[in-house]
Amino acid sequence: VLEATRTLLVEKGYAGTTVQAVATLSGVATSAIYRRWPSRVRLIEEAVFPGFGPLRMEPTGRLSDDLARFIDAYQATFVLPSARAAIAGITAEYVASQQVQPDQDYLRLTVRPLFYEIIAAASGDVVDASVDPDDVFDMLLGTLVIRSMVPLVGQRALPTERLVDLLLRLFSPQVEPTARPERA
Amino acid sequence: VLEATRTLLVEKGYAGTTVQAVATLSGVATSAIYRRWPSRVRLIEEAVFPGFGPLRMEPTGRLSDDLARFIDAYQATFVLPSARAAIAGITAEYVASQQVQPDQDYLRLTVRPLFYEIIAAASGDVVDASVDPDDVFDMLLGTLVIRSMVPLVGQRALPTERLVDLLLRLFSPQVEPTARPERA
Fold first, then answer.
1. What is the pTM of this model?
2. What DSSP string runs through B69-132?
3. Crossing angle of helices A81-97/A63-79, nearest 10°?
4. Which of A117, A153, B145, B157 has the most CB atoms at less than 10 Å from its CB?
5. How far is B13 from chain A (nearest CA, A)?
6. Mutate to test the interface with A, among B162, B166, B167, B176 (most CBs of A within 10 A)
7. CA B57, CA B114: separation in Å to the nearest integer?
8. What is the pLDDT of residues B59-75, one digit of tens each?
9. Which segments of chain B have a pLDDT < 70?
10. Which residues of chain A are within 8 Å of residue B141 when distances are taken between CB atoms?
């Protein structure tokens, strides 16, 4: 059923991925599908975002390395063709229903705790304690989502190392302006 | 017609804002609406994002002030109830149609040139020339869009000054790690 859902998302788009179409392609009755998933959105969510078991990683303490690994793994989910087809559709349905899911993160991507771990494990003078990791995570999430959803942004190449550099800048302890070296 | 479109977005959501419904509420025939706007998406876009005439501003050169004014004006568009209802729906349609609009920016928000102007006008040693303004703009755009679309992110308070601080950090010239003051 999940495989059929992903196939339909790629071939027919979000609108074409109905429970009926999934039933036909998978050979599983719609009643059985609805017993397992209460709604079409939940089915699509689970098919596209199976959760982040594979992303479990031990932070090494080298912040740039850890962020690069984190971004590569996280981003991989957003660029799958089935995910591209699903993200905007799922989000539109949530907005329309004004539904808030306090018990889980956006799109089942509960990676925020791992992000905190990586920041907490960073060794060296690279993290300014006055920067809220949630603010940085939201910027990263927004950047990845918009790259997935908006073609004009997604077309611009932004290699992982450049995104890592930007995140390091966000966390970097700031020097007083007077202490900054003069630039020509 | 545009006013009726905005009213319907707030009251009936994106799905309920059909050209037929706009015609009924505004008293304008659907044929006349289609003469002016080739599609429902274009009508909704123009109703919600009338372009950024009012955002024309002269950069003062004080980067933090200019960014704060820019963000306040830009963000105001995203938090309108009609915009919240429209953004995810419009984006989903673009993704579904795989349509790229090379001649205009996302959601008619052609504010990128103004952002460049602000960065170019910044006085003092606050902008590292090695940082690509496009990268920073994409992060800002992603942050604002995700705040508008994802309730869990939008609920977190992120005042303009904190977002300005994060952008200043992104642009800030970096000191060599060895030159950084020791932290206790």
1. 0.80
2. HHHHHHHHHHHSHHHHHHHHHHHHHHHHHT---TTS-GGG---HHHHHHHHHH--SS---TTS-
3. 80
4. B145
5. 6
6. B166
7. 8
8. 999 999 999 999 988 88
9. 50-55, 97-110, 151-152, 175-184
10. 142, 146, 150, 153
